[in-house]
Amino acid sequence: MQRIVVVGGGAGGLELVTRLGDRLGSRRRVPQAEVVLVDRYPTHVWKPLLHEVAAGSMDPFTHQLEYAAQARWHGFEFQQGELTGLDRARRVVRIGELRDEDGTLLLPVREIPYDTLVLAVGSTTHFFGVPGADQYAIALDTVAQAERFRRRLVALCLRARHWHASQERVPSGDGDAGWEDDTGADSAPTRADVRAEPDARAGASAAAGAARASDASPRSAEVRVAIVGGGATGVELSAELRNTAQVLAAYGLHDIDPRHDLSITLVEAGPRLLPALSERLSEETRKLLTGLGVSVMLDARVEAVVADGLQLAGGLHVPADLVVWAAGIKASPMLAQLDGLATNRLGQVLVRPTLQTETDDAVFALGDCASCAWGTSERRVPPRAQAAHQQASFLFEALLRQMDGKPLGAFEYRDLGSLVSLGRFSAVGSLMGGLIGGSMFVEGLFARFMYMSLYRLHIAALHGYPRMMLDAIAHWLRRSTMPRVKLH
């Protein structure tokens, strides 16, 4: 019996293995193939929503999907572990050992044979070699990283609340009396008066809104967040954090001013936000973020990330208590070490229009880890969730055709547009396709509804529409009895 092994349980990989299991797997009266999913984690969370996890507006533990349960329901096998090697001659993948939090060995190193291998391992954050970025900045690749950011944000808000409470008990004398720290002036950290103008542009504009770090002023209680990268993740996190601050203040747990005590600075090296999208969409997004009180710095290149913020080209310093790096992605370095598979400079596996790797016809790749031509042009299929979904759908049909001895066919990517969330009740984007005969700009509540529909379509692809509707109702009922933001 043929064995199909899919490595990576992201959006594309999980949709593919679910459909293969339903059609060919062990729950069929006569199974036609063994379908195996390999992933380093036991659960799946839709990656485009990690910014909401980081902001506390989505609880990942109520939205996660257990791979083992999905395997039981849909007739495939789940093996937990990280891909560490590939032997193409023997057609086996090597999976590393699995240990618990205490270091106890749970599963040894394993080798899993395959007839067809699909790599769907996604991407990881690209720090571009910027000094200090991997040490001081937080990426948003995993639920653990998003939760780490959220916990630190809540802790900083608690500290700010305590500072406000202590100031109310200190009699004010001279103008600066209230800023004194009982640890002594020498040991108290200083605050740099750096503020990016909302419309900051091209060096000179950024300088107008920022002062050098040497111009020290008394310590402030505000929480300062700097987000590097003006793509979708950076923009969405900026907007979501503003909503989080308002909710925290409304619940009274952190009695801080949501607009002034939480400063959010979005730093983009290019001349506009969302560079992969239209200029109109970029400009509308900038205006909306500015209206939310987010400081946007354009043409601002980060030269280093330091313990107290960002060092920009030209000597500008942006102070920050928390730094998020959302400036780019690359494939896992592990892919370039997989028995000679051809990769590009970003580490993506080079694939043909059939999604077979250029090196081995028995090995396929999809999603962010694959570099696939977009039509006849020199463009490549972008690393988006819709691309992974389309490739999973294509590969499902292609593998069925291959089992019947028919040609695989060629993958054709269709850009259906892009949507960017700007908080609980707003989004912006453009819709494309045959139904509207071109491109249509959308914004506001309608765009937000379309944005959330993408997640529901993903759930429908995994569970079917009836269970998706039940899941949506269950989450609505749960949220009606819980705060909109995690408070701890």
From TrEMBL:
Pfam family of the protein (one): Pyr_redox_2
Ranges annotated as biased composition (Low complexity): 201-213
FAD/NAD(P)-binding domain: residues covered: 3-154, 218-392
Keyword hit for Secreted: no
KW Transmembrane helix (keyword) present: yes
One Gene Ontology MF term: NAD(P)H dehydrogenase (quinone) activity
Source domain of life: Bacteria
Keywords assigned: FAD, Flavoprotein, Membrane, Oxidoreductase, Transmembrane, Transmembrane helix
TM segment ranges: 425-446
Ranges for region Disordered: 167-213
Gene3D superfamilies in UniProt: 3.50.50.100
UniProt record, GO biological process: aerobic electron transport chain
Coiled coil regions in record: none
Cofactor: FAD
Family under the similarity heading: Belongs to the NADH dehydrogenase family.
Stated name of the protein: NAD(P)/FAD-dependent oxidoreductase
Species this protein is from: Pararobbsia silviterrae
